[in-house]
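Input (structure):
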């Protein structure tokens, strides 16, 4: 039976469930702070820390070869681990996970944002990227991505793949750096229209995103984001570049933490299909893939579908005149 990871956009799992899925990766892969590299190779496997300014380092991992390079952006509170394991049921194959699966046809990289959760046993905040205390702006998160690809000398333009709130990060990056954006894949992603769809319930939902019920909610280093400011930043920025896009969307309800108000969850479920449709409408002839039987973690429950969507966008990038 499939584990349902209880992270609605943005509602993070209880420790026991995180530990259960972490077994798919292995403890040795989930701990440690690698040394800072002198260079990031253009091909082959790489894992290490990259300087991003201000004395901070960010963990980066890359596999495969080829272009365009694909960057995988995790959702709120999630480290890069969610791209490295699967939790499937037949007929969906157990392997490969998205990270190695994309590496089979092009270069792909993932990274840990500070304050995000490792799917370890026991669960923990990442120690692989330098902690940052306090509420972060979307602008700062997009700047981190820019500093990372610049410091690591990752060749662009990139196909940016964002899960959940990660969709907001890649969207603002693409709006600010259209020349470095080759394509976009939104994996059950957050959108700017959600605030209006929640109406009077928005403040309660925003609180749930900040404090989703993990053992780490009160820690200063736990990732928190200015959600209202994020929506405003994307809305005020330049339009997205005209690049190939794809949207993947869940069909099953969000898995919610104990005690989450039912009316809040009902509002979320009503709003989410409209949020997904707004993402489809961002580009021309953007396909939408419904991940039948999957909850919010499409990349974990339907890795082959996610890989196929990335491959489609990469193929369309190659076909550009």
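Output (sequence):
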């Amino acid at each position: 039976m499939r584990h349902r990871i209880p992270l609605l956009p943005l509602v993070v799992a209880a420790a026991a469930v995180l530990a259960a899925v972490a077994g798919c990766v292995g403890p040795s892969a989930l701990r440690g702070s690698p040394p800072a590299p002198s260079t990031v190779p253009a091909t082959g496997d790489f894992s290490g820390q990259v300087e991003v300014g201000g004395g901070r380092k960010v963990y980066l991992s890359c596999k495969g070869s080829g272009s365009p390079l694909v960057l995988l952006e995790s959702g709120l509170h999630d480290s890069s681990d969610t791209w490295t394991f699967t939790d499937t049921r037949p007929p969906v194959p157990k392997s490969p996970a998205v990270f190695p699966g994309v590496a089979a046809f092009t270069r792909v990289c993932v990274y840990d944002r500070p304050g995000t959760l490792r799917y370890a046993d026991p669960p923990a905040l990442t120690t692989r990227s330098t902690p940052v205390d306090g509420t972060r702006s979307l602008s700062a998160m997009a700047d981190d991505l820019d500093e990372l690809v610049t410091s690591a000398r990752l060749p662009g333009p990139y196909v940016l793949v964002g899960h959940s709130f990660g969709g907001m990060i890649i969207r603002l990056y693409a709006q600010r750096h259209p020349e470095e954006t080759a394509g976009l894949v939104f994996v059950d992603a957050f959108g700017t229209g959600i605030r209006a769809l929640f109406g009077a319930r928005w403040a309660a939902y925003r609180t749930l995103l900040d404090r989703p019920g993990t053992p780490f909610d009160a820690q200063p280093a736990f990732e928190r984001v200015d959600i209202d400011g994020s929506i405003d930043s994307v809305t005020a920025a330049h339009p997205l570049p005209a690049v190939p896009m794809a949207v993947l969307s869940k069909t099953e309800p969000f898995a919610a933490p104990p005690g989450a108000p039912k009316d809040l969850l009902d509002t979320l479920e009503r709003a989410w299909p409209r949020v997904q449709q707004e993402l489809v409408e961002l580009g021309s002839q953007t396909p939408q893939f419904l991940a039948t039987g999957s909850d919010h973690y499409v990349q974990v429950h339907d890795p082959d579908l996610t890989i196929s969507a990335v491959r489609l966008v990469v193929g369309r990038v190659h076909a550009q005149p």
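Notes: The chain has a mean pLDDT of 88. The first strand starts at residue 46 and ends at 53.
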